[in-house]
Fold each of these.
Amino acid sequence: MNAANMEQLVTELKDEIYNKLHHRTLLAYTGQPPIWDDQLFYLLLPRVNGEQWTKQHQVAAQSVAMIQTALTTHDLVKEQQATSKAQQLMVLAGDYYSGMYYDTLAKLPDIQFVQKLSNAVAEISEQKTAFYEPEECTLEELLLRYETIVSRAVEQFMGHFGFTVYIELMKKGMLLSRLSAELKKVINDTSTIRLFRVISERFSSKDEAIRVIQQEITTRATKLTEEIHTMEFLTNVAKTAVLSRIEALNHSAT
Amino acid sequence: MEKMKLKMLYSGMKSEIDIIEKELETALNSSSHFLNEASLHLLKAGGKRIRPVFVLLAAKFGQYDIQQIKNVAVPLELIHMASLVHDDVIDNAELRRGRETVKAQYNNRVAMYAGDFIFAKALEYMTQIKKQQAHQVLSNTMVEICVGEIIQIEDKQVLKQNLRDYFRRIKRKTAVLISSSCELGAIASGASPEVVRHMRRFGYYVGMSFQIIDDILDFTATDKQLGKPAGSDLMQGNVTLPALYALEDDQIRPMIEKVIEGPITESERQQLLKAIRKSDAIQKANHISDLYLQKALKEVDKLPNHPVNKSLVDIANFMGKRKF
């Protein structure tokens, strides 16, 4: 297993999910489902690290990405006036992907995992809503909230299959990776999530908020890189794969 | 008046329905202030609770245990509730049952998260049921409902459609969830495969009749009764059964074409409603609803003799004859 193999596994998993979520009308109006490559990467990390990986792991990993994609699709619905056909179908696309995740696990069957993922979905929805509530919280608290949103579903997967040793790494890696991806959108004015608006309100300008987040990414990436070097449970192949991802984020943040 | 009738129909199950109501409140309890507020708002708006009631009634044909069966009844109502919250975003609706919608109260995005939260809570409850068959039925239902709604959007503002298109749409949009409520109640209680089959069919026919009546009421009920302007479906481009029949009338057709083309004035709306009410479109649609209702009642005849059969017949009749 090497970095190229890892990318190949991510691509394969992504294609499997695209196939399961395919719907002619949704594709025409809402485009391909917004699957997160970084989430697939962390879902597959135990496999790359040599853990036992069966069909059940693969299907469960698909379902995690499917439900996260469903929730992400709903982040693309406009806050006001979602009246265009594309926007109306965006609402239904999220619901359809959500139904497909349940259908996938019901067929497996892994009902206990449905319960754990449902729990994660409820928590993610609560945290997303909390960004709209007039509540005073620190930057650290906001980032912690965002970490839950981007990592809770994978955390449930890792807990369910006994990959608990990977959870802390995955949570930090997912937060960094999503923050970085979202920051690029903020810079290009294409971000649709509320987090950065809430952060921006704390600073005198949007540019200042961007600088603070860039600094946050760099600091956290440096710290995580040091930690990864000491993680004995990771093989050299897995270590290299994670480190190269984080290095790429660090470069794009500066 | 209608609410009173429904209350009487449910009177034999009052204690069980109270358990479901309490459980719905518990299920929607959240750490988020907005989600709590939205949920309470939805619960207070009430509703007919048809789906959980059918779950309870169907379960009486097997080993009935309310503590077990509530794990099916609650999710069915929650799924219905969540889809309404999302539907209001799609329809840009400010009011439902005379109350502000979640999207009007906050915004579309919060409504999306509220719907996702309620869906998740529904599945959390459902996972107390360990039978794979039950999960396959429900997951298939959830996908079917979405597909039905996608078709509805595809068919919007399309006048060149036939009755089959309409039936295909309402089957997925409404009948499937009512059918599954009946089927799942029977499955969860371990009723025989025959009962499961007849309950599924009963629910399907009742659901079809129910949706047709709903589509009729959109033209015949008052704005106050509906809690939104009468004729809203057509104004949003949804061509329902009464509209399909009305299109056959040369005098009404141009009026409908105008609605589909764009916004109409209040006096044009009143004129259209008056014309449709006076035409035979309502009568024809009522006739189709009746046919489905009769089919539903025939399914009850095929069920084992049980005191529940009368309740099924009474509720089906109520749904197929309701005034709003």
Amino acid sequence: MLFLFSLRLRLSSGRGEDQTDGEPDAALIERARDGDLPAFNQLVARHERAVFNVALRYMRSREQAEDVTQEAFLRAWRSLESFRNDAGEGFRAWLLRIASNRALDVLRASSRRPADSLDSKLDDDESAWEPEGKDEGPLAFAVRGDLGTRLEDALGQIHPDQRLVIILSDIHGHAYAEIAEIAGVPIGTVKSRINRGRARLRELLLADAESRELLGVHARLESGDGHV
Amino acid sequence: MSDDTRERSLHAARDASTPPNGSDGDPTMIQPDQHLDAEMLSAWLDTPDEFSEQDRLAIENHLAGCAECSQVAAELTAIVRAFQTLPFVEPERSFSLTPEAAGLVATPTLPSSRRLEEPSHLHERALEKNTRNQVDHYEPIPWYERQMRALRWATTVAAMLFVLFVSVDVLGNIDGGSDDADESAAFSEAPIPTQAAAASGAAATNTTASGMAAPEEEADESARGAEEDSVPDASSDDDVAGSAPEPTSASDASGTTGGAEAEEESPPADAAAEATAEDANTMMVEVPSEPEQADQAQPNDESVSAYSGKDMTEERQESNTLHLIELALLIAIAWLIVAMIALPRLRRPPA
């Protein structure tokens, strides 16, 4: 089983990258600074998917996520001068920082439970669940889908600080440095939050009998032990 | 080992091994005989390179001999793998900024109620809802709002024109109201009743009433005309005879008897015609008894006869033109109102 632990869990690059063909971010940013709205909207089209998905998983409400995403781009447009990196690097991180700050504000202001659950959204969007690979059998596919749904639910129960870094790290595959920039905390804090968040998620899953069973099955499937 | 026992062991391991990771500093020495903390395992799974060689070996050795810690590591791995394969949700709309939203369009202040109805701008509603204190006064005019203003102006102008034309029409009718009776009588298919005055007038009137089944008012007007215009007119008489489908004894000396004869001779006449005939008869009774009225009314005969067919046609055409204009204005107003209702629904700004 030791080979399992030689795997690095972290993704090498950001997941869910939007289309980046065409003009680089730096050029578009430069034009947008001169008031070129179409150029800015190209940046929007390039990054809106990532920003929206982070907001959606963080807010767990589509309506709120849309509001936060739209406001993030609006604020970005208005404060484009404050984005310092002339090379255009870190623009997505900058956008995500704006969005996550706004999302945190909304979460603090709103104590109600989201009416439009992400779970229901994903339940409705089962077509999005594709087998991870050709080798993945129907059992593994079903277990992963069910576990993912439960993880989404558990994600909503952990501390928002831990939730944000887990979303950025494990779902979107951002590097520690990027997450630190987005969250506005040192890298060490990011790591700590990630590890505590994962441990907390595991606790939450183990607290429920069905989730515990699913986690066990998925762990065995992941480790290559097919004896389920 | 139960879960509780395992958790206690992990807590014991965490207590013994100070912060498992969470910082960039060297992790503390791993005790081979103690269970590994879940947080430490998470860190080790993520970035084993950040552990010292000694700690890495200690962890690997421990995992090789400890099924429980291996299970924890496997569960953490499963969690992260499940996260990594979560589907991305496609946004249901674009978040591109419109020129209005970006503040590139003139931004006069609008009423707040209208601002909330602005199209496209979920973000504007979000700003209203969530960031009322933080967002600057941002009140763009949407494209349809500008067109809406033009529509309002057009509707107002059309409505004013409509009122103007209707007023002219009504006032014109009032001014010419005194003549209308004569006009209506003159223009109606029933000929001017004055021609049937005096001796043959009543009979002629009766004939008209019964023959044409003219409305009672018309017959009354005709009768009044007959009272006023007591001078017989041969040419008119011909007209009367010509227009009456069933010419009766228009040459009777007595209007009363003539009327009676007319009634008798026209049995198919309907009830209205009979009533009209009675009215006419009643009036005709008075005609001979007040011949002075006929004398006073004699000058009117000239004005009545002054009505040429051409003038009447022109007036009629003017009236028709007015009505056409009024109708056109009504249609325009209706169209504009429909446009104003439909426009806010077309919330997509032009590309």
Amino acid sequence: MKPNRGPVAGAVLNAFVIVAMLVWVIPTIALLTASVRPEKEVIATGWWTVLNSPLKITQHTLRDYRQVISTQGSGIGFRNSFIISSIGTILPVVIAALAAFGLAHLESRAKTVSYAMTVCLAGTPLLMTFAPVLRAYNRLGLSGTFLGLWLARMGYGLPFAVFMLSRFFGALPKDVFESSYIDGASPSTAFFRVALPLSVPALASLVIFQFLWVWNDLLVVLTYLGDASDVSAVSTRLPGLAVFQGPSWHLLCSAGFISVAVPLLVFFSLQKYFVRGILAGFLLE
Amino acid sequence: MAKVVLDHVTKRFGNVIAVNDACLEIKDKEFLVLVGPSGCGKSTTLRMVAGLEEITEGNIYIGDTLVNDIPPKDRDIAMVFQNYALYPHMDVYNNMAFGLKLRKYPKAEIDRLVKQAAQILGIENLLDRKPKALSGGQRQRVALGRAIVREPKVFLMDEPLSNLDAKLRVVMRAELSKLHMRLQTTVIYVTHDQTEAMTMGDRIVVMKDGLIQQVGAPLEIYDNPDNMFVAGFIGTPPMNFIDAVLVKEGDDLYVKGPGFKLKVPSGRFKDLGPYIDKEVVFGIRPEDIIDAEFYPGEVTDDNSIVAMVDVTEPLGSEVLVYLSFGESMVTAKLDPHTRAEDGENLKVVFAMHKMHLFDKDTEMVIR
């Protein structure tokens, strides 16, 4: 189904896409370039000066990366961020997939109510939840722990995830599941052997979304984990790099680029599913 | 191999009655066709037998087992869906093997059964393809293969041919009949297409608005429909219905209306006494209206009329002619060599020994 566009509309659309792409890509390139330039040059001249002699590899250095990872303790930050993000992504996606399958394909009286509640929760402002949840966490001893943060990330991530996946599962043909029941499948077999393999695109997009939210998040991490050095994440540490020992822009660039690179890696490894996934349930086959 | 019994089965969706007090016994090895317009409850009936819909009231037995509360997987049935419902992520082999794997058949046995089914259906060369890479007819065969590979007691088929093109449908129709003969399994087949019902069914169940209208062998239903709905639904083009009054002149009865007066053959009906001078519906099938020129018997004023030819549709083997006379319009299936021409008059004979009469109020047949 290719939309039928006139040549003018096509050109405008292409121009728009190119501009949008540049707006997003140039800062990333700038960050990358700046991160491999020696400290003095970063402070003295703009990143674009490398364009004067683009082939001169020797002007670049990976020294800042080494320093960021080893001496500044950012290594722990990256490790923490990775622990937080991976489990904070997998947990809600798995639970959302189970819930969404139930909502889409199982008979239950509570279905409509729980679906409506899920959609309502997706619209609850994050900030409103901080005070009550934090109080509860303090009492339960969950604040400042990874477990507390995973649970919080699950709470914040589930409504959208359930909504999106149930739309996707709902769009899968019902008779395929009925067929599997007749073939001898239980609901869980139908979920694992029919629904899951068919929903890789949707799951992949959800993983990307959730990973980006968790990885890039500062507010939730700061609220529930604080900035204690053993648990703090990259996002909490990055501002510290900029101010603690005087502004060390060169380190900030390297650390910043690593923190950008991780979500990019996740995105590129799953991107072939991405468009199919986000359109899931919103387009007819 | 088992009989299936529906004992006063009712299905309600909220306030809507989808199936109303259906009683039916499908014999062992029988090919039974449920036919009716969309929304008549035929698919719901099938789905209740499959266990995909719960029964509101009544009992369903497969063999001698009451299956009301038995889940689909334990009913020993297989179902072919209208949209084939193949598993998109599995190749043909695994589509067919899935049910056997879940039932923990040994690997070698699965292999043997799948290959055997594939051979019966002529899809051995497709076993490693995904459904996406198959044509409609091939998908249909895979769906059938998935059903027969388990050798179930009962096959349920929900409009399996309706997504195929006209030509392929005719081919598959014959193949399904052959397959049934070969496998000797009970088949319940749902369709809205009366041609499929007529050609494939050992018996036909005609449904409308959740109610079973008539059950019988195809020709039995065709020749002796119980009511106007069945008469109009089975047969193509459908039976002509003409409003008439039953009149008695001397010893003879006539159906009479504007532009026609036709004699009711004596002995065709048991007792028409109560209907004399009443309004009735006179039914006659298109093939029972014959061009007078080709009528082998005697053409009299009692069995023929002169009608205006509105449109002719030559089909080669026959000509469909739309005729009007008085206030009535009828369709006639005439000999291809008829001289009927649009806008001209034509004398046609009504084969009155094949006429039907219906009560105008109840729409039930008068016998």
Amino acid sequence: MRQAAFLVAGGITEIVGGPSSGRTSLLVACLRDVTRCGAIAALVDTDHVFDPAGAARAGVELSRVLWVRCGRRPDRALRAADLLVRCPGFALIALDTGDLTPRLSLTMTYRLKLAVRRTGTALVVAARHRVAGSAAALAIETSRRALQWTSSSPAPSRLERVGTAVRILRASGVAPDVRPGTVYLAWWSA
Amino acid sequence: MSPFACAWIPFFAAAAAERGEPALVDRPLAVVRGAAPVGRVVEANAAAREHRVGPGMTEAEARARCPVLATRPWSDERVASARHALLEAALTVSPRVEDGGPGLAHVDIAGLERLVGNARVVAERLVRQVGAVGLRPRVGVAASRTAARLAAQTGPRITIIPMGDERAFLAAVPLGSLDFPADLAATFARWGLRTLGELATLPRRSLGDRLGAAGLRAHDLALGLDRDPFHVHVPEPYWEEAQGLEWEIATLEALAVVLERVLERLCARLDVVHVAVDALDLELLLASGGTYQRLIALAYPTRDVRLMLTLIRLDLEAHPPDAAVVGVTVRVRPAVAQPSPAGLWQPPAPAHRDLAALLTRLTALVGAANLGTPSPADSHRPDAFTLRPFAASTAADPGARHAGDDEPEPRMMLRRAEPPMAVDVETDGARPRSVRGGGVTVRVLACAGPWRTSGEWWDTRAWARDEWDVLLTDTRLCRLVHDHLTKRWHLTGVYD
């Protein structure tokens, strides 16, 4: 399925997963789907981990991405996301909370939820664990399922692709075919 | 082949000074750059040159040679103003004018014979029009710009070269009259060439074989042929609207009515050419005889009359003029307006006003260096990128791809460590066996590599390294790099 199916216009999508689970790849795939349609997206990068060259190879139209680097300051990232969701015209706000996922207060999550509902923006939060609670319209968990190495010799010389299981944890007010418990398998080329 | 006229102003910097002070005309005059006693002459008029005063000599030496010499300091504004005046005067003769540099204007006079007269009448008109703005030109008319220019520079006030006689005219012109590149001029001198006529007699094919495109261009010029395109000078539009008043206005409410009319006229003109403004220069003529000026910067380019009027009102409320107003002038600085939305099938971009406010707030929050649009840098270094100012354009890029067309393969992204984390790596041969970083040692379960990359070896930013993709026992899939220059290992990112 296309990653854009995980975007909820006017709602919050959470992508959670551990290290090397594929959550960043899923987030960037959402950026790709949005920007290739000609829309504008913003990426709030808490830890300065975004790889522009890799994203460009993945098909992201970088000229349509506003990149906000927050210098490992989660409070700044939340403030930047709060400003962005209030500006109409962005199709997607991607918030990468980094490795130090901040705790979002109930007030903050509902503040974000109401803001995106008003502007029609899709807010995607990528985090180690769930932070938006019931304010999220869609919550997805990623976990690594498979690794494929290739080689012409006994020792592998190349990581070819990685398989990620994408499991729906919560789905509220989204497409009827996206149900909690459903698992999709996504493959990423290395 | 269409005829060209060339208006040339001898000793242009001095002529520009004379234009501002007509009393200096016919007096020895030198334009000096730098303060005395180290000031040097950069230009001298004809009267000064009769006393052997020329560019390059010190001001003291020039005064020694010509005790009655008048000097004026160099002024960029004065020269630019004179250059602009020359082009404006030329535009009154023909709409096709090329700016040939300071003191030089090429005029395409094709088709003017029925409107103005023959070439001599056109040239006299050009002399008259340029003379009206305070400059004394020499004019040459020929079938090519180069021939016309050389005719103006070497002949009397007006020189007409009949069509087809360019080569004969140029034959006696010294090679130095054309500003050939130094190496080309040196080659010609080594060959014993002195005039354009001697250059024109050389076989073209052999000249091209020996000197390439530069030699062929020089040969064309010697024959009186111009292959360079004619760059038409388009004058900058003058964005100003003014309103004189028959009575004095002392209240802001009454003044706002007048300002609104002035702004409406101005914005109607801007609307026609799809230009917005980002600064307003308001000038009020006061009943006391003075003027009152305010410069109002706009946060984003616009041609919204009500917005401009509100800003002017707010500014004048805070800084009111000290007398009644009898005249209003509004000048604006144009900026290209960005269309929004871009197209019927494109989602709307953020409004300029919203985006300007958003970017200002984000800049205050994270700093200008951390905000923008990423762009791959012109380098093979994997982590090279540049950050450009964000411009929310949903306009389709040339050759833009659409969803569903030529979909790129989904890729595993790397979460880059910035800066790369130095780690200690235990190896088995060349392959990593365990990684120690941050006080923790983890074993390598699987690894792939090495991928050897290097680049910019010609620069101080040279890099050469081996890259390994490693799966660690803590479930992380990482990229390790062994730097060949520093012999150190780094963890540059985690696949995620």
